[in-house]
Amino acid sequence: MARSWAELLGEPGAAPVPEEEGGGRFFSRLRDSLGKSRRALTGELAAATSFDPGDDADWERLEEALIAGDVGVRATAELVRRLEARGELGDLNAALAEEVTGLFGEAPVLDVAHAPAVILVVGVNGTGKTTTIGKLSARLAERGHSVVVAAADTYRAAAEEQLETWAQRAGADFVGSERGGDPAAVAYDAVEAAIARGRGVVVVDTAGRLHTQTNLMAELAKVRRVLAGRLDGAPHETLLVVDATMGQNGVQQARLFGEAVGVTGVVLTKLDGSAKGGVAIPIAYELGLPVKLVGVGEGLEDLQPFDPRDYARALVGG
Amino acid sequence: MFDALSDKLQGALGDLRGRGVLDDEAISRAMREVRLALLEADVNFGVVKDFVAQVRERARGEAVRKSLTPGQEVVKIVHEELTELLGSSDSRLAFSQRPPTTILLAGLQGSGKTTAAGKLALLLEKEGRKPALVAADLQRPAAIDQLIQLGGQAGVPVYAGERADPVKAVRDGIERAKADGRDVVILDTAGRLHVDEPLMEELAAVRREAKPTNVLLVLDAMTGQEAVNVAQAFQERIDFDGVVLTKLDGDARGGAALSVRAVTGKPVKLASLGEKLDALDWFHPDRMASRILGMGDVLTLIERAEAAIADDEKEQLEKRMLKGEFSFDDFLSSYKMLRRMGPLQGILKMIPGLGNQLEGLDQVDEGQLKRVEAIVLSMTPHERRVPHVIDASRRKRIAAGSGATVEQVNQLIEARKQMAKMMKMVGSGKMPQLPGMAAGAPTMGGGPRPSATRKASSKRKKKQAKR
Question: What is the pLDDT of residue A48?
């Protein structure tokens, strides 16, 4: 079973994807993607069944395996603490998967129940924001939402062309501007257009920026303010796109983007490499930010709702 | 860049610095902290293990026990090991005897290859070469457009042809560059996952076709533990010569940089420190190690100053300063020189002993600096030359003219007075003590350091290469 789009979008009567309809397929896909990490984790542990809770060296190996998965020092310490507190471990993999799932908390919802709902997408350079927006727009369109895509990345050379290509594929309206224009103005225009045309969801792409660039972060805060000024409650979702290859810097990104624009959820991309995306765990644990979507490939169908249990199982190899 | 790692390491070693005697426990405690600092900086855990073991062993050795300042000795060991880890070898690229020199850029999606290609073209062009860019990224929508725009900004030709076949695109691109008399060809390939077999094979085919003089792996400085796997996979397939580290201008702790060299033996050659097209520079491992340990980076500072300040301008100012003449005109021109060297905060961090004292000073107020400029520009030429004529009513006028308060004008006038006094002291051979120098300086002083000779030689090399 995997989390379905209907569940993620909070549709009434939503149910998980049954195994036979691709839920299992996506899970196995995720597990294949995380295959390397599975080997790394269980490999390091030299067959989890032989894990001896009384042996310090075994605990150290577990720690190293988690750190090698980019889980980070603090979240690793917390996971180890929780496992130790269990006393009797039984199957280490199952126990670890449970604790990882626990750190993620409840599976979240992507709030699109507004007319129109505004989704602001932010992140550092090169994490896959534009690609994510293309896929997300297509999935939303499939679920019966009419979508407006706003190219508020007015900085990167050729960013707009890339987004327009995606918007066409997704059958979404496209609102652009000249290069070097004001991103807040583009965002405003997109909301105007959505209201005028009665569209359901506005997805706003923004230029990649490092979270330490104060001016650019201030620019992003302005985009948010302008959206809120045009439409009460907007943006209803602010998604931070985090690359699975990212290390502990991802936590800092989530923290600073959160302070600047109030992030409501994380999209974990590029899980199809050998990277484990373990940084999602400290982001959830230290900042309480839920992962809402996960990307495991280039294809449209490769963006999926994040299922904490599936992810934890795939990560640990349970 | 590397700030957080730098802070942590300095914290870990700070306790050792002042100690006269080192016991095992103190060393162990410091090593635990060092280990934690490196792990949090995303240094590969295997590399961390080896690094800590190596430092620990040396810290228990003869040299430390016999030293009068064992704490300093350990700091020195960490510095040396860190430099070793970052790679002490030359960061220069190879240039072919028979042009064109070819440079192949490869890496994961989103690592910044295309931007790095544009930046590298500009850097080489500034060094007097004639680069050209070839688009071999036929995967990502709009990648070619992006490269064409970057080429336009850098004033460098971009060859983009056959959309379907990267091998052909590369072959044609090199041919056209040759025909146009370009002496360096930079090949921008599509981003790919190192586990994507068909795409890695395609890259290997491009490499076979291009027979590049240099193969560079472009790596995002924010990459985590995965960096090592990525680097190893690319090394197996395309055997790269060095690394371009991108996005180092954030607060990424650069663990990837520390790990990749250790695992693959390939040095970081270039580092990108900003979004602007001119923000790519050659990587100097020894300087970087100094900066990580908060020991400043005087060489880069001097180079920046040299690049920013015209010789005659400098001489003139020096002469006047030594005579103790320091009018507002001088104030303004020295201020303008400083501005040309880049963001003030970056400059301050390169000053030895100052780096770790800038805490809480995270954002040097650049706006305030602009106000200073506005105040000086609101003075008449006469007032600038002969500052003592500025009386109360003139102060009021200057304040009104510059949008500042009279108090701010007063402060500036006072600051100039102090500076002129200081200049006079320098001129007469009495060195004024800068605040903070005494506290941070011991790591720099205290006898000759082995790395001093290395620094000098790397500078020579750079000069040679620039010709």
Answer: 52
Q: What is the mean pLDDT of each run of 10 residues along chain B (467 residues)?
A: 63 70 79 83 87 88 73 79 74 86 92 92 93 84 84 92 79 92 93 85 91 94 88 92 87 75 88 86 76 57 61 68 72 72 62 50 60 87 86 91 89 80 63 40 34 38 42
**What distance in Å separates the CA atoms of residue B358 and residue B314, rounded to the nearest whole number?**
28
For residue A300, what is the DSSP state? G
Distance CA A292, CA A289 (A): 9
Identify which of A247, A252, A244, A308 has the alpha carbon closest to the alpha carbon of residue A270: A244
Higher-pLDDT residue of A237, A105? A237
A92 — pLDDT class (breaks 50, 70, 90): confident
Judged by a CB distance cut-off of 8 A, whether residue B220 touches chain A is yes
Beta-carbon separation of A158 and B149 below 8 A = yes
B249/A contact by beta carbon, under 8 A: yes
Q: Is the Cβ of B429 closer than 8 Å to some Cβ of chain A? A: no
Phi, psi of B270 (to 5 degrees): -135, 150
B345 touching A (Cβ < 8 Å):
no
Instruction: Centre a 10 Å sphere on the Cβ of residue B333 and count the other Cβ atoms it contains.
Output: 16
Please give the ipTM for the structure prediction. 0.78
Tell me which DSSP letter residue B311 carries.
H
Q: Which two tokens stand for residue B161?
A: 């042809």
Q: Does residue A180 surpass a pLDDT of 80?
A: no
For chains A and B, count residue pairs whose Cβ atoms are closer than 8 Å. Answer: 133
At B215 the three-state DSSP class reads: strand
* Range B301-305 contact pairs with CB under 8 angstroms and sequence separation of 24 or more: B301/B347, B301/B350, B301/B351, B304/B341, B304/B342, B304/B347, B304/B350, B305/B337, B305/B341
pLDDT of the residue at B467: 40
Predicted structure pTM score: 0.73
Which of B36, B50, B226 to mutate: most A Cβ within 10 Å?
B226
Rg (CA), chain B: 26
- Take residue B100 and report the two structure tokens written for it: 């064109």
Q: Which residues of A touch B42 (CB under 8 A)?
A: 70, 247-249
Q: Do B251 and A252 count as a contact with CB atoms less than 8 A apart?
A: yes
Indicate the pLDDT class of residue A205, thresholds 50, 70 and 90: very high
Contact flag B226-A245 (C-beta cutoff 8 Å) = yes
C-alpha to C-alpha distance for A82 and A99, rounded to whole angstroms: 7
Residues of A whose CB is below 8 A from B146: 156-159
SS3 B191: coil
Instruction: Tell me whether B223 touches chain A (CB under 8 Å).
Output: yes
Instruction: Report yes or no: B402 and B312 within 8 Å, Cβ to Cβ.
Output: no
Determine the 3-state secondary structure of B313 from DSSP.
helix
* A46-60, A186-200, B299-313: least confidently modelled range: B299-313
Q: What type of residue sits at position B103?
A: I
Residues A135/A220, Cβ–Cβ less than 8 Å = no
Helix B70-86 × helix B450-466 angle, to 10°: 30
User: pLDDT at position B161, please?
Assistant: 73
Contact of B256 with chain A, judged by CB distance below 8 Å, is answered with yes
- And the tokens for B385? 């030359």
The pair of structure tokens assigned to A7 is 């569940």
Give just the sign of the alpha carbon dihedral B266, B269, B270, B271: positive
Choose among B45, B150, B250: nearest Cβ to A67: B45
User: Rounded to an integer, what distance in angstroms lies between the CA atom of residue B198 and that of residue A118?
Assistant: 39
- Tokens found for residue B278: 């001119």
Residues 6+ apart with CB under 8 A from A21: none
Percent of chain A predicted with pLDDT > 70: 88
Query: Which of A249, A270, A298, A315 to substitute to test the interface with B, most B CBs within 10 Å?
Result: A249
